[in-house]
Amino acid sequence: MPTRSGVGRPMTNRRMFVTMLIGAMLRRRSRALAAIGSSVVGAATLFCLAAICLAVPAQMSARCASSAPTSSWCP
Questions:
Q1: Which residues pair with 10 in a beta bridge?
Q2: Tens digits of residue pLDDT in 2-52
Q3: Do residues 3 and 11 touch, judged by C-beta distance below 8 A?
Q4: What is the DSSP annotation of 9-48?
Q5: Burial degree of 74 (CB within 10 A; 0-12, 13-18, 19+)
Q6: Residue 10, Cα to own-chain centre: how many angstroms?
Q7: What 8-state DSSP symbol labels residue 70?
Q8: What is the rounded distance in angstroms from the CA atom of residue 37 to the CA atom of residue 10?
Q9: 13 with 1: CB under 8 angstroms?
Q10: What SS3 class is residue 3?
Q11: Contact 10, 1 (CB under 8 A)
Q12: Whole-angstrom Cα distance, residue 22 to residue 4?
């Protein structure tokens, strides 16, 4: 029987099945980690955008309240 790279035990059907099964489990784990990482990045982006949407209007209203009434960009 042929062997893997010419060294080691011969590759039987059972050994090939176990090798493929372990490879599939490792790929599934890496895909799950990639999905979790993508979710974390998306949540962080959404949080930062929400913080900006809340902070900018508050800063603008504070700036307009403290500036002189002749300011050109404050209503």
A1: 3
A2: 555 556 778 898 899 998 988 888 888 888 899 999 999 999 999 999 999
A3: yes
A4: SB--HHHHHHHHHHHHHHHHHHHHHHHHHHHHHHHHHHHH
A5: middle
A6: 41
A7: T
A8: 39
A9: no
A10: strand
A11: yes
A12: 16
